Amino acid sequence: MAEIARDVGASQADTTTAWSRGRAGREFWKRMRASRSGVIGMVLLIILIAVALFAPVISPFSPDEIAGRALRAPSSAHLMGTDNVGRDVFSVVLHGTRIALLMGLVSAALALLIGAVVGGIAGYAGGHVETLLMRVTEIFQIVPLMVLALFVVALWGSHLWLLVIAVTIAIWPLEARIVYAQVKSLKNREFVQVARVAGASHLRILGREILPNALPPVIVQVSLDAGLAILTQTSLGFLGLGDPNTASWGQLLYAAQDFLSSAWWMSVFPGLAVALAIVAFSLLGDGMNEIYNPHQRRGTVGASR
After folding, report:
1. Residue ranges making up the domain that contains 173
2. Considering the domain boundaries, does residue 40 fall inside one?
3. The CA-based dihedral angle spanning residues 136, 138, 142, 145, taken in that order and rounded to the nearest 10 degrees
4. What are the CA-CA distances from residue 178 to residues 165, 248, 267, 282 (Å)?
5. Would residue 248 count as lying in a domain?
6. DSSP string over the chain
7. pTM of this prediction?
């Protein structure tokens, strides 16, 4: 009978949790539609993703193809002109969107995964495990992102995936600390106690009950980190340290340094693409912050008045 009661309790807890998550999802989209910055950021990001997915179809030339005479101004044949070797800038910018989003989204997703595991275990376990994991987190957090990226490039080269790993290593402590704080505040809540009484294992409690409720606030940081990863990859390309085998915005900006006065289009169009991507993730992060911290937003508005 005890086993039957425990199974029924677990089933009811799962049903309640699923219903709560569904309601939370509907509430999220309702609040997102009410956030102007969130809507704009999401629309811009959707446009960038569409461009990245359909770049081979949209672009009139291959990003490595010599499409015409070098340094041709924007025209109907070349919407954004040509660069110093005759490549179509429009085609390079379109394909560069794929590299930028790959860098930003993969780095941010990996950082979230590592941060959720480390921060979740540290916050739930407590004791010596908590102390050890948080000290390791602090060690990684003190390393500046650009210094780490330059160190990786100097030792192992500028391959795109090496840069993804370097950026991930530099930014995961931010996610870990946020998850850690959320788990610490949630692990003694009533719904967690119910799961314990129902006989759920520690892994199930952490993975099914606590982390889904702890992750929403960290998504704000993830969106900002995605923009930071794109900016880092572009900065390395601008310094001539990007992956030479990929068509990227930073690569175009590096080549444009010697032609700022004679071929403005070489720097303006990739620069606008970088700005658009950063603004998209920043606005999306602002929208997330308005959703998960509505009282902070109201307080800010009230203070400004």
Report:
1. 46-304
2. no
3. 70
4. 21, 32, 37, 18
5. yes
6. -HHHHHHHHHHHHHHHHHHHHHHHHHHHHHHHHH-HHHHHHHHHHHHHHHHHHTHHHH-SS-TTSB-SSTTPPS-SSSTT-B-TTSBBHHHHHHHHHHHHHHHHHHHHHHHHHHHHHHHHHHHHH-HHHHHHHHHHHHHHHTS-HHHHHHHHHHHH---HHHHHHHHHHHHHHHHHHHHHHHHHHHTTSHHHHHHHHTT--HHHIIIIIIHHHHHHHHHHHHHHHHHHHHHHHHHHHHTT-S-TTS--HHHHHHHHGGGTTT-THHHHHHHHHHHHHHHHHHHHHHHHHHHH-HHHHHHHHHHH-
7. 0.81
pLDDT tens profile 210-266? 888 888 888 888 999 999 999 988 999 998 888 888 889 999 999 999 998 889 999
In this prediction, residues 135-162 reach a mean pLDDT of: 87
Q: What does the pLDDT look like over 36-84, one tens digit per residue? A: 888 999 999 999 999 999 999 999 999 999 998 999 999 999 999 999 9
For the chain, what's the residue count?
305
Domain membership flag for residue 31: no
Domain-embedded: residue 51: yes
Question: What's the number of domains the chain is made of?
Answer: 1
Identity (one letter) of the amino acid at 70? A
Could you give the CA distance from residue 248 to residue 206 in angstroms, rounded to a whole number?
40
The CATH number given to whatever domain includes residue 53 is 1.10.3720.10
